[in-house]
Structure formats: C-alpha cells, structure tokens
Amino acid sequence: MINLLPLIRNECLKIIKKKRFYVILLILLVLVPMFTYAQMRIAERSQNKFNSDWRLEVQQQITDNQNSLGSDRIPEEWKSYRKIFVQQLQYYLNHDVNPNEPSGVTFTREFLDNSVTLFIPLLIMAVASDLVSGERTTGTIKMLLTRPVKRWKVLFSKMAALLMFVSLIVLSTFLVSYLISGLAFGYKGFNVPVFTGFQISGDSVDMSTVHAVPQWKYLLMQCGLIWFVSVVVALLAFMVSVLVRSTAASIVVMMAALIAGTILTNMASAWTTAKYLFMVNLGLTGYLAGTPAPIEGMTLAFSMAVLAVWGLASVIISFTVFTKRDILN
Amino acid sequence: MNDSKWTWRSVSLISIAATVLLIIGFVYAVNDIINPAGDTLQTSLPQGTATPLTGTNELLKVVALGDSLAKGTGDNTGAGFVKRAVDGLAADGEHTELLGNMGINGQTTLGLQNSLKEEGVQYELRQASVILLSIGGNDLFRGSDILKDGSNSSTTSNSSAVDKDLTPEALLAALPEAAKRLGLILESIAKINPQAQIYYVGLYNPFGDIPDLLVPGNQAVAAWNNAAMDIINKHSNMTLVPTFDLFNRHLDQYLSSDHFHPNGDGYQRMGERIVQAVR
C-alpha cells in the first residue's frame, strides 16, 4: 500500500507534463467565448423584439410551439416533446420566474446541459485515451513494467490519476464557462430559482412534485451528475486505451461510440433496446431539467444502472487484460 | 524537483476537494430526482394593465390573438395582417409596437376560450393597448381538410373534398354555439384589459368561387358577422373590421394557394382596413 501514493503522484505529473490538461483548458478558452458571443447576439435580438419583457418572449415561445403542434409535418415524438416544453414554460410563466434569466450562471447551466453528452466526454477522452496506449506507442511501457511494482498497481495508479483529472476537468469547465460568460452577462444569479421535479408521463407533465431550487444548488447537482457521466466515460476510454495499441485508434473508437450516441438519441425511440447502450444514457442532466428521455422507459435510476454496469465492466476488463497480457512490441 | 512537489500538492488537493464537492452534488441530484418534494413558489405575474390611450401620439402596443389569419398563414413573407397593420400604423406616424402575436393555426373559439385562462396570455393582453382578434373561421368551416396546415398540395383535390364536407346545414349548425363563445371571448378579453381597444376581424367567404358553396357560404359568413356585430355593438371599446367585401369576387387574386387563407396582397388589404379602424 505504501508505494501506491508515489505511483499516483508519478502518473499525475506525467499527465501534467504531457500538457494534455493545458490542451483541455485551451479548448475551453477558445470555445466558451464563441458560445458566449453567440448567446449574446441572441439575447440582444430578443431584447430588441420584446422590449426586454421576458414574459412576452416566453409567451411567444409558447405560441410558436403550440403552432407547430398542429402541423402534420412534425413527427409525433417531437410533438410530445414540445407539449412538455410548453407546459414547463407555462409553469415558469405562471410563477413569474424567467427560465432564461440572462446571467453568467444561467449561461453556465445551459452550457453544461448541452455539453454533457458530447463535449465534456471529448475533453475527458483527451486525457483518458492516451494513458496506456500512449506508453505503448512511445515504448515507455516496458520501462514502467520492469520496475519491481505489481502490474495492477501500475494500472490502478493510472486510473486514480485519471479520476482526479476527471474532477478537475468538470470543475474547470464550470469555472471557465462561468468566468468568461460572466464578462458578458454579469456574475450574479446564483440565487435565481430554477424549477425541477417535472414528472413526465407520455406527453403530459405532472407538476405536483415541481419545486424551486436556487441556481447554485441546481448547478451543484448538475455538476454532480456530469461528474458521474464523466467517470464512466473515463473508465470506458481507459479500457479502450488498454485494449488498443495506438492512441489514435483509441481516440477514434471512443469518438465513434460517442457520436453514434448523439445520432441514436436523435433517431431514438423506435429501437427500444438501444437504451442499454451507454452512449444513449449520457444525458443525465436531462432528468434534472425535466426534458423527456430519448427512449421511452428510461429513468434516472435506469440510466445510472446502465452506466454503472458499463463502467464496472470496463474496469474489470482493463485489469484482467493488463495484468495477463504479454507486452511484445 | 521542488517545482513538481508543489504541482502535485496543489493538483491533488484541488482534485480531492472537487471530487468531494461533485459527489455531494451527485448525491443531492439523485435524491432530488428520485424523491422530489413538491413545494410551490407563491408568486404570480404582475397584475397591472397598460396605461390607457389618451393623447394622439401615444405608444400603441399591439397584441394579436386568434387563429391562422392572426398568425399570417398563407402570406409568403410571414407578415400577415398583424405585421402589415403595425407597419401601416408606423408609416402613418403612430408610435406602434407589436408586443406579440398569439395566433395559432387551427384555433377555434373553444381553444381560444381555454387559452384565455392561461396567465401568460392574460399578462400579454394586459400590456396591450390595441388587441387584434381573428377567430371563428375554423368553427364555421370545420371538417374541411383545407383548414389543416400543410395539406395545400393540390387545390383541385381540395375543392372536391370541400364539396363533400361542406353542406349549408353543416355550416349553419356550428354557428349559434360558436357565436355564443365569441361573445364570451370578447367579454373576457374586455375584462382582462378594460382599457384596450379590441378590433375583431370579420370573416370572408373563401368558397365564393365554388358555385355550390357561394350562397350557403355567404349566408353563413353573413350570419356570423351579424352575430359578431350584435355583440360588439354593445361595447364601446370594441370594433368590427369587415373583410367580406375585400375578398368577395376577388378570391383568385387575394387568396393563397391553399384556397382558404389570404395571400400577401389579401393580408395587405386587411392590414389597411385595420389601420383605418385604429387611427
């Protein structure tokens, strides 16, 4: 046990020295201002149109969605999605709470909601996909394994370091997005109420359990769910990096899986067994916001169970493969 | 070496703190979603109404309400009579502002009655000083397929469908009920915002060029417009804007390809009427 901590420390320093984490920060620093600017333009435009009365804007949004309900060209699933959306907007309006109160905090909340299924997993992959396969590509794996340290300890220390960086990535995504969008929208808004607890059944929403949560708590819960998703993605990417010899291949495998997930969630519903795939279950924050799940029958407990099974399986596979395999090249 | 020692210390401390925080958030979230505790925020929308029209150059706050005509279906530019009327008023030097357009395709008097109970709708009506209302067409001509948005692929097949579905009896049967609801709608709008001027857009007969439907259509529309007039005449803050004459015998010119909604030119004429009524 004594020599585990220095190993973890060593792995952490390797990740830092390889500058993977800086790349992630750089990506955030480039992309978040772009999203902030886009959002700012939208806000400006609607302010001109609605004379800064958000209630009129929300009512118009309700009307627009109601209009599309009558159209035959829109698929049924979208209609029920919009019906739910309309009911939620009306709930916000009835309680005089602006669902899109412009602030850096709200921007961060929406940004996190949108990035949980693809963007944050991609950032995680930037660290995770390289951990083992990177050592094999450069050949340093031999040096590592000739030390008098058990193989599982080597792998465990890598995994521990990875999990530390998962938390750091989630934290820095939040911080960068808050600090940059705050420049444009202001840093206040932590106490604005957000509604959660919408129970969706079919295309109607049960409002009896809806309650207001201050936005800071909402963000905390959201980040917690994102953390869980990220850990699972990290473990999966880690397994792929154990199984595949080159970093490029391991990134491609994970990316293909994630992108397939976004495509599947958009096509969705008809193929119900797809709900057992991990990539369809990444949108945990949707359960908090009350957006309908991509496939009928998915709940938070279900998605978490699916993700946990995938995560555990990948840990087991990583360890068995890594401890048994001969390192040849 | 000293450098890496500090890096390690700070990275490990921050990441452990972050992990603990995130796990707390995770537990909160799971708990909140699986056992949600309902408690409602006791706030409601501001109840004040817009200031009444007094001066000549007061700001006109326009809100539109009703069916596809209010929405502007059939107008290729999407403007409809609402935007055209607002633009017309602005061109005449009035300070005009369109607060919102709550027109919904296929809206009937029954549907509108329900949506008037929504707080958001009421709030928007309270902000208005001019309310444009168009409703009733779907009640009167219900059952004909052309009312549905998106089925305007071929006009010829539609007119044969019209012949089957629209009988004079059917047109007149829906009238008394719907007219009663129109009265209730107008009264509840006036109750929601007593200070606003309400302009009700009368119906025209979209089937005037189909020989079998010319007379029954005209009768039904005239009966409807009369019923509307009866109600509107009893209130000083309501005006009926007739459109029957605008379209009669000019249907090919002013109706869009779905043979029911006006086209851009038709909406322009309606908009001009409204400008005349408002000023």
Tell me about this structure:
- The complex is a heterodimer of chains A (329) and B (279).
- In chain A, the strands form 2 sheets. Chain A has a two-stranded antiparallel ribbon.
- With 329 residues, chain A is mainly α.
- Chain A is globular, with a radius of gyration of 22 Å.
- Chain A is built from 13 helices and 4 strands.
- Chain A has one domain.
- Helix content of chain A is 70%, strand content 4%.
- Chain A has helices at 4-17, 20-50, 54-69, 76-94, 104-115, 119-128, 133-138, 140-146, 151-185, 215-243, 247-267, 285-289, 300-324; strands spanning 193-196, 199-201, 204-206, 211-214.
- In chain B, α4 (109-115) runs parallel beside α9 (175-192) and α9 packs parallel to α10.
- The radius of gyration of chain B is 26 Å and the shape is elongated.
- Chain B has a 5-stranded parallel sheet with strand order 2-1-3-4-5, with helices on both faces.
- Chain B is 53% helix and 11% strand.
- Mean pLDDT of chain B is 82; it is low at 143-164.
- Chain B folds into 2 domains: 2-42; 57-278, SGNH hydrolase (Rossmann fold, 3-Layer(aba) Sandwich).
- Chain B has helices spanning 2-34, 68-71, 80-91, 109-115, 119-127, 137-140, 155-165, 168-173, 175-192, 211-232, 244-247, 251-254, 264-278, and strands at residues 59-66, 95-103, 130-134, 197-201, 238-241.
- Chain B is built from 13 helices and 5 strands.
- Chains A and B meet through α1, α3, α4, α9 and β4 of A and α1, β2 and α5 of B.
- Chain A: One of its GO terms (molecular function) is ABC-type transporter activity.
- Chain A: One of its GO terms (cellular component) is plasma membrane.
- Chain A: Keywords: Membrane, Transmembrane, Transmembrane helix.
Number of helices of chain B: 13
Going by CATH, the architecture of the largest domain in chain B would be: 3-Layer(aba) Sandwich
Structural class of chain B: alpha/beta
Rg of chain B (C-alpha, Å)? 26 Å
Query: Percentage of helical residues of chain A?
Result: 55-70%
The arrangement of helices and strands of chain A along the chain is: HHHHHHHHHEEEEHHHH
Strand order of the largest sheet of chain B: 2-1-3-4-5
Number of domains of chain B: 2
**CATH level-1 class of the largest domain in chain B:** Alpha Beta
What would you call the structural class of chain A?
mainly alpha
Strand content of chain B: 5-15%
User: Topology as H/E string of chain B?
Assistant: HEHHEHHEHHHHEHEHHH
Low-confidence stretches of chain B: 143-164
Q: How would you sum up the global shape of chain A?
A: globular
Beta-strand fraction estimate of chain A: under 5%
Give the overall average pLDDT of chain A. Answer: 88
The domain tally of chain A reads: 1
What separation lies between the terminal Cα atoms of chain A? 30 Å
Helix content of chain B: 40-55%
GO cellular component, one term (chain A): plasma membrane
GO molecular function (chain A): ABC-type transporter activity
Protein name (chain A): ABC transporter permease subunit
Keywords (chain A): Membrane, Transmembrane, Transmembrane helix
